[in-house]
Design a protein that fits this description.
Blueprint lengths: L25 E2 L1 H13 L6 H24 L4 E2 L1 H27 L11
Helix pairs in contact: 1-2, 1-3, 2-3
């Protein structure tokens, strides 16, 4: 390019941007389900039958999600959410077992009779 030639014209306004290499990975639905059920199982320790079900669901969906994410070759993401769901579900189950053991041994009063 010399000084006698005019410069090339600038790109047009609104010119399409070339694609960046395909579709971005999306979050796994099982990972989201695992995280939600794992988190909800924690306050459900006081309602232990529901807490047990939600904790087990959080662990199962978390394991299935991590397996799906590992075999998706980058098409799915959310392994951290799945792991958090597994951890929350396991903590909830452990707390429920501790509360049931303490209630069975009499350390926690389950009589709920109050006198004034």
């Amino acid at each position: 390019m010399s000084y006698s030639e005019p410069p090339p014209p600038p790109p047009q306004y609104g010119a399409p941007v070339p694609p960046a290499g395909g579709m971005p990975p999306k979050n796994s639905g099982k990972a989201i389900t695992s995280l939600v059920t794992g988190i909800v199982s924690l306050p459900m320790v006081c309602c232990w039958p529901l807490g047990v079900v939600l904790g087990i669901l959080g662990i199962v969906f978390g394991v299935l999600a991590r397996k799906d994410i590992a075999t998706s070759s980058g098409a799915l993401k959310g392994a951290g959410m799945a792991l958090a769901g597994i951890i929350c579900g396991a903590v909830a189950l452990a707390l429920i077992v501790i509360v049931l053991i303490l209630a069975a041994s009499g350390a926690i009063d389950t009589d709920f009779e109050y006198s004034s």
